[in-house]
Amino acid sequence: MSVPLSQMWTVATYVLKQRLRRNPRYPLVLMLEPLFRCNLACAGCGKIQYPGHILRKHLSVEQCLAAVEECGAPMVSIPGGEPLMYPEIGPLVAELVARRKYVYLCTNAILLKEKLEEGLFTPSKYLSFSVHMDGLREEHDEAVCREGVYDQAVEGIRAALRRGFRVTTNTTLFDGASAIRMQMFFDEMMDLGVEGMMLSPGYSYSKAPDQEHFLRRQKTHELFSKMLSNPKKRWKFNQSPLFLQFLMGKWDFECTPWGNPTYNMFGWQRPCYLLQEGYAATFKELMETTRWEGYGHRSGNEKCKDCMVHCGYEPTAVNTTFASWKGFKATVEATLTGRL
Amino acid sequence: MAQDERPLEGWDPGPIEGAALAEAVERAFDYRGDVTLVRRAGGELVGYLFNRDADAAPPFVQLFAASGGDPVTIPYADIRSIRFTGRDTAAGNSYAAWLRSREAAKAAGSARGA
Fold first, then answer.
1. CA A265, A266, A270, A274: dihedral to nearest 10 degrees?
2. What are phi and psi of B58, to 5 degrees?
3. How far apart are CA A106 and CA A45, in angstroms?
4. DSSP of A92-161, one letter per residue?
5. A158-197 pLDDT per residue, tens
6. Which end of chain A is more exposed for a tag (fewer CB within 10 A), N or C?
7. Residue B39 pairs with which residues in a beta bridge?
8. Are strands A267-271 and A262-264 parallel, antiparallel or unpaired?
9. Quick check: B48 and A145 CB within 8 A?
10. Which of A39-48, A70-79, A210-219 bottoms out in mean pLDDT, i.e. has the lowest?
11. Looking at domain A5-337, which of 3.40.1090.10, 3.60.150.10, 3.20.20.70, 3.40.50.1000 is its CATH number?
12. Which CATH code for domain B18-113?
C-alpha cells in the first residue's frame, strides 16, 4: 500500500478519537464539488447533466472552506465536474493545505500541464493529483468517449511528477473489463512513477448515458479476484487493503453512506456521493435528519443492491481496521506484505 | 397525467394540487432540465428545481432561477403548476452515439488502409 505514513497517522488518530467519543457516525473524506462543469462527457458519469446556467455556476472559496470546517473530515476530495476548470482552484487548494487537510484533486488531467506551468500549485505532502485513468489507452479513451485523452493524462502525470507533486490515479471499472489488461495497466502506471492507484467498480447512475455496463456484485468479486489475487510487489494502491479485499469477496461489508459526505452548490447531498435524494442546508442537518437505515446493501433499497463503490465501502473498510483485531491484523499484513 | 414511461420534456400537467402537485414536484426534482413554476398569486419562475422537502412544515421546493442569483425557496402552497419547459439534459444516449462514431471512424480508417 502506498498511503504516506503521516497521512495514515492523521487518519488513524482521527478515527480513534471518533471511536473514543463513541461517535457512531463520522465523516472520513469530504467530497467537495465546487462546480459541475467538465471538459469531458464520459459514458458512465451522471454528474454533469444540468442546464447551462447551472453548469456556469460554481461555489466560492469561502463557501468551500465553510463546508470543510463544518464537516471536519481529515481528507478532502475535490471532484466535480473538472476541478481544474474551477477558476479559484489554486487559492482553494492553498487554503486547504494551510489547514492541513489531505487533498485529492480528482482530475482528468487534460488541463494539468497547463495549470502547473501557470504555477497554480505548490508541491505538498497534503496535495495529491488523483488522475482519472480507466485503463490502458484504448479502454480509457472509450470510457471518456474521446480519443487522445489517455495520452494527455499521461503527459499531465509526467509534468506533475517532474515538479515533485504527489500523483495517484483513480480507476472506475465496468463490466467487460479484462483482468489481464488491467494488470498491464497497473504495470504501466507504476512505470510512470505514480505514488499509488485507487480502484472502484462504477455505479449505475440513473442519469448516466451508458446504463448497460455496470458491474454486479458477483462479477465484481470475480474481476477483482482475478486482478489482485497474486499482486505484484511493485503495484501500489492508495486505498484501504480491506476495501480491495472486500471487492475480491473476502469481506462482507455494509455501506457507510455518511463516510464520504458530498457538498456542492445545492447543499449537503442526501444520502451519499452517488444518490441525489435531496439536500440539507447544514452538515449537522444532513447527519441528524437523513434516514440512514434506508440505504446500504442490506437495506433492501434497489439503488444500493449492487453498489460496491469506494465512497460507501472504503469508510467501512477503514473503520473495520480500527474496530477489531481481525481487521487491524489483516490491514497490517496486507500493508507489510502487499498481499491481498 | 400518467407520465411513467414518457419523456417529461414538454409536459404540462395544468393546474394541480395535493397528491398531483406532490408527484409533479418529485418528477421535477428528478428532471435534469429547467422547469417553469406557475405561482398561485400569478407570475412564473423559470429555473432548475434542485431540492424539495415534502415533510417540512410547510413543504417547499428550491430552485436556481435561469436568470441567475441565489436559490429561491417556494412553499408547495404557492405553486399552481409546474411545466417541464427546459431540455432534459440527461435524455438521449451519447454513449451509443460515441460508439457509432468510433465504429464509423474505424471503418473509414480500414477502408483507407485497404
1. -60
2. -85, 160
3. 14
4. HHHHHHHTT-EEEEEE--TTHHHHHHTT-----TTEEEEEE--SSHHHHHHHTTSTTHHHHHHHHHHHHH
5. 999 999 999 999 999 988 899 999 999 999 999 999 999 9
6. N
7. B79
8. antiparallel
9. no
10. A210-219
11. 3.20.20.70
12. 2.30.30.100
As given in the structure block, the three cell numbers for residue A170 are: 483513480
- Neighbour order of strands in the sheet with B44-53: B72-75, B60-65, B44-53, B35-39, B79-83
Q: Which chain A residues have a beta carbon less than 8 Å from that of B32?
A: 49-51, 207
Least CB-CB distance to B32: which of A49, A265, A278? A49
Q: Is the pTM of this model over 0.80?
A: yes
Please give the radius of gyration of chain A, using alpha carbons only, rounded to the nearest integer: 19
* DSSP letter string, A153-204: HHHHHHHHHHTT-EEEEEEEE-TT--HHHHHHHHHHHHHHT-SEEEEEE---
The domain spans of chain B are: 18-113
Q: Is the pLDDT of residue A283 over 60?
A: yes
pLDDT digits (tens, 9 = 90+) for A105-120: 999 999 999 999 999 9
Q: Hey, where are the domains in chain A?
A: 5-337
Grid coordinates representing A225 are: 479476484
Q: What is the dihedral of CA A287, A322, A241, A221, to 10 degrees?
A: -70
